[in-house]
C-alpha cells in the first residue's frame, strides 16, 4: 500500500530520473539506519554504497567515508577480501 512508487521523479543533471533530493536523503537515511540496526547488530556494520549519487549525498549519508571515487573504490575492493 505504499505510495512510494507513485512519487514524482525529477530528471537530474545526469539525465537519470530520481526522487527529489530531500526525499532521497530521507529514504537513504532510513534504509541506512534499518540495515545498520538489524544487520550490523550481529557484528561489524556492513559496507553500504550509494550507486550513482553525488558527493553531497555521500557526505550527508555517510560522513565517515571520504566520497572521493578512488577512496570509495579502494574501500569496496578491500571489503570484498575481508571475509
Describe this structure in words.
- The protein has helices spanning 21-38, 55-61, 69-80; strands at residues 9-11, 17-19.
- The chain has 83 residues and is mainly alpha-helical.
- A two-stranded antiparallel sheet has the order 1-2.
- The longest helix is centred in the middle third of the chain and has 18 residues, at 21-38.
- It is globular.
Q: Record the strand order, biggest sheet.
A: 1-2
Q: Mean pLDDT score, rounded?
A: 85
Residues in helices, as a percent range:
40-55%
Instruction: Please mark out the parts with pLDDT under 50 across 5 or more consecutive residues, or reply none.
Output: none
Distance between the termini: 38 Å
- Backbone structural class: mainly alpha
The shape is globular
Give the helices and strands as they follow along the chain.
EEHHH
Give me the count of strands: 2
The whole-angstrom Rg is: 15 Å
Oligomer classification: single chain
The tally of helices reads: 3
**Largest β-sheet summary:** 2 strands, antiparallel
Strand content: 5-15%
Amino acid at each position: 500500500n505504499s505510495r512510494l512508487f507513485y512519487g514524482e521523479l525529477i530528471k537530474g543533471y545526469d539525465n537519470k530520473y530520481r526522487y527529489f533530493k530531500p526525499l532521497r536523503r530521507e529514504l537513504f537515511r532510513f534504509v541506512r539506519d534499518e540495515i545498520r540496526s538489524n544487520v550490523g547488530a550481529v557484528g561489524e556494520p556492513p559496507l553500504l554504497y550509494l550507486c550513482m549519487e553525488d558527493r553531497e549525498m555521500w557526505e550527508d549519508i555517510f560522513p565517515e567515508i571520504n566520497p572521493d571515487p578512488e577512496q570509495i573504490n579502494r574501500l569496496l575492493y578491500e571489503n570484498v577480501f575481508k571475509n
